[in-house]
Structure formats: structure tokens, C-alpha cells
Design a protein that fits this description.
Layout (H helix, E strand, L loop, with lengths): L1 H7 L4 H28 L7 H21 L6 H23 L7 H23 L1
């Protein structure tokens, strides 16, 4: 009994990485849709920052729910790590592509928000 309890409490890093990849694939699809909407409508480009936030959040939520839907425990941590890693990788890419970017308070807030959104998704995924 103890060994089965111990196995349930382990983090599944493969599951987390798959969740991050799923979140990026969802983001890609959503960004293509948003790009099409911006191209074919008169929607202002000022909406792009909001679209990025919504798209990233939706991608983390869907991925977190899907990834944690068939585990019994620690969904909050799996989902939180999916959100955290998703944001961290985006930040790392941003630092390499635009060296003028710096890691400040805003970056830390983004990481925390990614973790929080993923945590909520992980809780939802385990309980749905």
C-alpha cells in the first residue's frame, strides 16, 4: 500500500513536457486564427498584446486540463509547472531574439501568473 501511495505522489516530467508542447501547438493554432482575423478585418493592432495574453492563458488552461485529466493527485503542481515552463521558455526565446529585453518585476509577475493559471487548470483537470 505504501509503495502505491508513493508512486501517486511523483511528478511525471514526461507528462509535463507533453503538456508544454500541447500548449505551444494550441498557441500556434490560435495565433494563426488571430492573424487571419487581423488581416481580414479592420481590427486595430492595439489589440495584439491582449490577444497574446488571452491566447497564452487559453493554451495553458486547455493543456493543463487535458494533461491532468487522468492523474489522481498533484494535478495542481503538474498544471502549474506547465504554465511556468511555458512562460519561461517564451522569456528565454525573447532574451535571445531581443537582447534588449531584461528580466524585471514584470517577468516575475508573468512567471507567477503562468504558474497560477496552470495550477487552476491542473486542479480542474484532476476534478473533471
Amino acid at each position: 500500500m505504501k509503495s502505491s501511495m508513493k508512486l501517486k505522489k511523483k511528478l511525471d516530467f514526461v507528462r509535463i513536457i507533453r503538456g508544454v508542447i500541447l500548449a505551444y501547438l494550441l498557441s500556434l493554432i490560435l495565433f494563426l486564427i488571430i492573424g487571419g482575423i487581423l488581416y481580414f478585418t479592420n481590427l486595430s493592432e492595439n489589440t495584439i498584446p491582449y490577444a497574446v495574453i488571452v491566447t497564452s492563458s487559453v493554451s495553458i488552461i486547455i493543456s493543463g486540463i487535458k494533461t491532468t485529466s487522468n492523474i489522481e493527485s498533484m494535478g495542481w503542481l503538474h498544471g502549474g509547472l506547465i504554465g511556468f515552463i511555458y512562460v519561461a521558455v517564451l522569456m528565454a526565446i525573447g532574451l535571445f531574439t531581443m537582447p534588449s529585453n531584461t528580466l524585471g518585476v514584470g517577468a516575475m509577475i508573468d512567471l507567477v501568473l503562468g504558474f497560477v493559471v496552470g495550477t487552476i487548470a491542473g486542479v480542474l483537470g484532476v476534478n473533471l
